[in-house]
Each structure stands twice: as C-alpha cells, then as structure tokens.
Amino acid sequence: MHNAIVTRKKNQEMSRPSCHGGSQEDTDGLPLLVIVGSPNVGKSVLFNALTGAYVTVSNYPGTTVEVSRGKGRLASSQIGVIDTPGMYRLIPLTEEERVARDILLEERPAAILHVTDAKNLERMLPMTLQLIEAGLPVILVANLMDEAERMGVQIDLPALERVLGIPVVGTALALGRGTSQLKDVLATFVNHCPNCTLSSPGKEALVQYHPGIEEALKEIETLLFGAYQITKRTIGLLLLQDDPGVAVLVRGQEGARFDDIQSIVKSTQEYFSQPLAYLIAHQQREAARRILKSVLALSEKRYHGFAERLSDATMSPLTGIPLLLLALYMLYLFVGVLGAQTLVNFLENSVFGSTINPWINRFLEAYIPWKVLRDLIGGEYGVLTLGVRYAVALILPIVGTFFLAFSIVEDSGYLPRLAMLIDRVFKKIGLNGRAVIPMVLGFGCDTMATIVTRTLETRRERILSTLLLSLAIPCSAQLGVMIAMLAGRPDLLAIWALIVTGVFLLVGLLAAQLMPGERPTFYMELPPLRLPTLTNVLVKTYTRMEWYFREVFPMFIIASVVIWLGRLTGAFDLALNALLPLVGWLGLPEQASVAFLFGFFRRDYGAAGLYDLRTAMSGVQILVATVTMTLFVPCVAQFSVTWKERGWKTALAIVAFIFPFAFLVGGLLNWLLISLRVNL
Amino acid sequence: MRVLRLRVRSHPSRYGLRQLPLGQRLPSGPLPALWLRDAAGSWIDPLAARPENKPVKERNVELQGAIEMKISEGAQEILERLWMVEEDGRGELALADLELESINELVQSGMILQNGSFWKLTKPGVPEAALAIRRHRLGERLLADVLKAEDVLLDEQACRLEHVLFDGLDESICTLLGHPQFCPHGKPIPPGECCRQMRATVSRLISSLSELKPGQGGEVAYIQMGDSGRLQKLMAMGVLPGGKITLVRSSPSFVFECGYSQFAVDEQIAGDIFVRLKLA
Fold this sequence. Notes:
Strand content of chain B: 15-25%
CATH architecture of the largest domain in chain B: Orthogonal Bundle
Order of helices and strands of chain B: EEHEHEEHHHHEEHEEEHE
Number of helices of chain B: 8
Distance between the termini of chain B: 42 Å
Oligomer: heterodimer
CATH topology of the largest domain in chain B: Diphtheria Toxin Repressor, domain 2
Shape of chain B: elongated
Largest sheet of chain B: 6 strands, antiparallel
Structural class of chain B: alpha+beta
Radius of gyration of chain B: 20 Å
Radius of gyration of chain A: 28 Å
Number of domains of chain B: 3
Strand content of chain A: 5-15%
C-alpha cells in the first residue's frame, strides 16, 4: 500500500500539466505544511502567500484540480508547502482528493492548515474535528473574515482556540489581512511542536458517537497493532465508513486480524438502518454545533446588499438570460472587436505587414544568397514572417484580451450561476451544470479545459465533455481569428454561431443516447459575487499568457520549419494534393488546403491561415470554411492531454469521429447553400 | 394484546434508547394517541398536529382505551407477506407457512383464495394488504427517522407499531413524515388518501425541499436514503438533520441557503431533503 501511494504520487508529479499555473517543486526532506479545506475558501491564496509562487485563484469551487507543491520560508528556515484540491470531509470522493488525503496519512506533515470560510464555520468545523480526532497537528484558519463581518457574524476566536485546543487564526487572505500573524503562529507551531502528532489525548474525544459506534471503535482499536500516522480511532472511523484506501492500508498492516476487524465493521453497519457515514457525519456536525454555541454570534438580520441583489438577478431566467447576453456582448466587444480587430489589424498591417516583414525580406534578399535559407526565415511561410507573425500579431492580442476578460468573469463568481442556469439543458446531453465550467474554460483553451473535466463525477460525463470540447468548443485564439474573419458580417457570425451550437447540442444528444449511463446529478456551491482584485486578475492573465506562449510559440516555429522541410522535399505539395479533394468538396479555393494542413498542428494556426485568405473568398465560402475549421480535429496539445486523461482508445476514437464529421458538416452546408442558391 | 409496545425515547440524552426496557406499558384510560419525540427532542402529538381544516373525528378515530381492529394481527401479517411475495415477484406463498386460524378469518372475509397449494390475494384483499403494508412501512420510517431506532430492531418494532396505526392515525403519521414514498429499506409505501390530498395542500409539517415555495424554509428533518451518491453530495454540502435551510428559488434549478452559503441542486437532490417547516 505504501509503495502504491508513493508510486502514484510520483506519477502525479511526472504527469503534471503546466497549464493552470500549477506548481511542482521537490519538497523532500523539508518540514511540510499541508493546506486543506472545503472548495473555494482560499487555500490557493494561502499557498501563494506562503511560497511566493502563483497557482490559479478564482471564485468558483474546483479551481484547483490537483496537488501543488512549493517551497517557502518561515522565520528563516525553509519549508515545503502543499496545496490540495478542495475536500469536504476526510473521506475522499475523487482521485485528487485521495492523493491529498494520502499525504495526510503518509507524509508526517509538520502542520496542517485547515482553511475555512469563517461565516460558515458550523459547516466547516466537522472537518477540523476530524483532523483533530486523527491526531494531526492542525491549525484552524478562519478565512474570509471580511465577509463574515459584513454579514454580522462574530466569532470569539480565543474561545474557539480554548475549546479545540489548537491554534486558531482569523484572516482575510485575499486582502492580505492576517497573513503575517498566521506566519508567526506557524513559525512557533512548527518550531516548538515538532512532534505534536498523536501526543494529545483527550482532544480526540471532542466528538462522542452513538454508543454502538463507540463500542465498535473500541473493539477495532484493540485489534490495530500496525504503525499509523493517524490515531487508531480515526482509522476505525474510516473503516466503519467503508473508506477503501484505509481498508487496503489496514489489511497490509494487520494481516489476518483484518478479517476480525472487517466482521466488526460489517455487524456494526448491519446494526444501523442508516449508512454509518451519514450517522457519523451527523454526529460530527452536532458536536460542531455544540462547540460553536458559545463561540459564534450570528446576526438576526440578513445582509442583502447590491451583490446579493445582483446575484438573484443572474439566477432568475427572466433577468439572468439578458444579463448573460449582455455579458457575452461585452466579451465580444472586448475580445472580438478590440482584440481581434483593432489590435490585430494594427499589428498585422502596421507592424508586420508594412514594417517588419518587408524589412526582413529586404534584409534577406540583400544578405542571404541561398533561397532555401531565405525561405526558412522569411517569405510566404518563413519562421519569422509566418510563425512569429501568427503568434504575435494574431494570437497574442486575442488570447491576451480573452484571458483578461475571462479572469474577471472567473473571479466575480459568475460561473457557478451560469452552471445553475444551464443545468437543465446540459442534462439533455448527458451532462450536468457542473460541466459548464470546463466548457466555458474551453473557450479560453481546450487543453486546459480537458484537464478540468477531471472534476466531473462519472466516466460517461468525462468522455462526453471531452468529445464536445474537441469538437465544438473553439478556443479563444481560434474564436478570435474566426471573429476577425467574420468582422463586418454579423449575419455570417450569427449563422456560424447557430450551426456550431446546433452541432454541439445534436452531437451531445446523440452521444448521450449512444452512451447510456446513470443520470448525472447536479450540485454546486454558489459563492458570493465578489469584486475581482486587480492584482489577481493581472497575475492570472499574465501566468496564463506566459503558459500559452510557451506552448504555442515553439509549435508555431516547429510548424513553420516542418512546412519548410515539406516544401523542400515535396511532401508539402503531396499533402496539399491529398487535401485538395476535401477542400474541393467544401467548395473552397485551393489555397485553403494550406490552412487545413496548418490546422493539424493547431486549430488556431489553421484559422490564422484562413484569415489570410478572407479577401479571396465569398460569403458562403467563408462560412463553410469557418464552420469546418471550428469542428476540425483538436490541436496536438489538446490531443495529447485527451490521450493522457482519457486513454488512447477514447482519444483516437474522438479524432476518428471528428475528422470526417467536420468535413461532412462543411460539405453538407456548402451543398445546401449552393442548391438553395443562397448568396451571402 | 392491546398493549402499545413502543420504545420511546424518554431520556434527554440522545442515545438513551438502548437502556430503556422493551415494551413500555402505556397508561390505560383516555390514551393520548401516540406521543412521539422528534429529533429536536420535543414531544409531539401527531393527532394534535393535524391540519386545522381536517377534523380529527372525520375517520372515527377513537383512541379511548382499546383500539378497534377489523382484522386480527395474524391475518394482517399474512396479508403483508402475500403482498411482499407479489412485490418481489416470487410467485405464491406456500400453504405450510401459514397460521390456520388467521387463514380462516381471511378466507371468510374473502380477502385471499387458495390456488393449488398456494395462497393469493383477492381483489378486495389487495387494498387491505396495501393498507397493512403501508402501516408497517410508515412505522419503520417513523422509527428510523424520528426515533432513530437501529436497523436490527426496526422490523420488530414496526411490527408492533403498525397494529396501532389505525383509522386515520396512519395518515397523521404519514403527514407528519411528509408523505414518504419509500421505507428505510427502499421498498415503496403504498400512498394513502392523505398523500393524494396533501400533494395539493401546503400545510404539512414536513415537506421535501423540492415542494417548498421560494422563501419557505425550516430545519432539515431527515434525508431520504435512496441513492448513496446523492447522500454523499448532501453530506458534502453539509445538509444534515438539524441544520437550517431556506429555499431561495426553484427554477431553473433549485437554490437553497444553508448557513451563509447558497447551493444550486437539481430536483432529485432537492427531493431528498425533507424540511420541518417553520410555522409562521
């Protein structure tokens, strides 16, 4: 078991995707601080504050999907810090929660920082109690104190400290309040209490369970002889609640005694009419309520300010849908008009078109006598004139404006409300409202979004959403280029959007029929709407753009070089000729086959290729080309992430479906428009 | 025979249950119907808790002293067994298992008939069996949700309890529990008249969250244990008995407030949460 966990952890570290600001530093041998807590309470903010690194922080549950490790300093000694995905209880539900829980079980952390939402302490405290019960060195961080105060919730922190017997610190981490106090507490805690673990009897009796459970716990404890990082009482509790990971651990340590333990567990479970996990959770909650009775003062009056009224408005279909359309329109103005048109035009025409490219070409003509080398650097498909131009003039402004706008949306807390609005529609395509988050993220970057599909519960939902992301969700770069292409033609833009939405729903509907499975259930916490902080928005945008560029730039350069090699060897023309019948089936000019060839590298690269052709195509051709390119195969990065997350069979099946399907839809659209004699 | 044998939680400590002797004898004379203790610890009289507009007398509820019974307990047990045999699709019940006296009683009242060596319910027998099953499973719900009895005792206790849930009392308990559709083991409870009527009226004590109006709320009374996945989600959201809960909106999804947090859930999850309404 121990080995299994270690291997899994190592795999985790090796397979780290670098795209959502994750951080993976080697923390071996350092005193470890592990940050745990419910989703969306500010764990990643604390991680960033302690390590000086940046992992993505947003205002919706499930931003962090994997464990991050970083290094920091505490009173001049180095420490390792681990950030974990949100978990509600000590019993893990998802694979990532299991990794986080195993760190608690296996790694002897020097301190566990349980970050909580101060205004919802009653709901969060049971987890603190579980951690104390487990004999772990816990510090309770009552975060979001600013919101608690605004709501009129008063917490007597010293009293809570006395009852719980652990340090309690009140903070508002996002505003930087209490961070230094927390560091001081941490430094003393880590230095003076290196082996607090398991040495604090009495504390673990904070929760008294039903006598039937207590009896079983006592019996189980007498049968546990192995060495565990957590108290035997907690091991017993986890066994009673059917925690598979702990069962394997105990089987490994206890050998034959495990059967006796298992029979105690069985008979206890049979004794009660309700699941033990539920009874135990209920009793932990009652204990929390009892403890907080003397600690918490709630205000009678509900605070109902502008944020609350706006929140209500976003959730009512009557006002929510207009607000959604308004938000989309603003997004269009910012990304589609400012980014994809104004900035792109400026960079394309003024900077590259009339200054840099002619200058490069003149320079090459003058100083480089070999045409082959000149073609590599400049000319029609050169590294600088094509690769760098696409990356800097087309993709940079679009991705930049999109990520900026998107960071603001993310931090406002709007996404969970969108999930709630759309849940019923998504149920029809075999998903639930939770899938809105990866789908919307997909408009930023489908690769990033494919990783986030991990947060979905069933395999069926994960496969369906991966398919839809690969097929019908254009990423920001691609979307921006499309919008730039369709600029000045709102009719085409509307038809394009309708067709792509239609394909999204239709394929979703059919795929859900073909892949039967249990009906997904929807639940999601709606965090308060919050005013995004400028620094987080800027840092997040910067981190994402940096990642995107690190990913995109080499690809664009490599693509340019491959095309150059292909032209040199004649393979380029062969491939173009192979694509010609397909392009002909779509009714597009021959040059469009170049764009589709580019599209194999990255969809946005392909779209950029189409962008260059826009003046040479009719309205119908532009429409057919953009629809086909939108549906066209996922880019190499997205494909490799799909491969990694869903396995090679699913990844290949998705591509095998999408490639002919994109051309089928494009061809049918072309045929339909021509036979109806539509002139666009 | 007419002893109301109920394990009643009479001790303020939550788990005083096990120390109490079995079969507490209730006083004779004017019997205060059934006094139950709810999860919050207060005594409730399910009859007194009936909605005002429904007179208690309506169904001839006479709980003075002995309870009038139409069919003997043995006969009821047979009806229930026949019902369950059919429910599980196991075919017929073998003759040898049954008690002769009760069989005679049922045959005379035309509720069962013999088919070879097996017994089957007749047409008039079916509703009577449904009623018996309903009383049994309502009893189980009551014991499990309100009195929190352990599973091993559930069946035994429910068997005793069902024989007192007569003539309207079953409906009172059904109302009190919010017209549950399934017993704690997940078997369906045949709906009574009250369930049909009460679907329309709002004045019930316990109602599922999905049937509340926005703005209504109260305390979580219990969680329906049908689906372990949904139960886990509810536990994750911290929706547990005793917590305060208010429905904020019911469309396009259900949004409720629990503590200072709002959660959005679909109808299935909302239907699993049963709320003891705050009486205005």
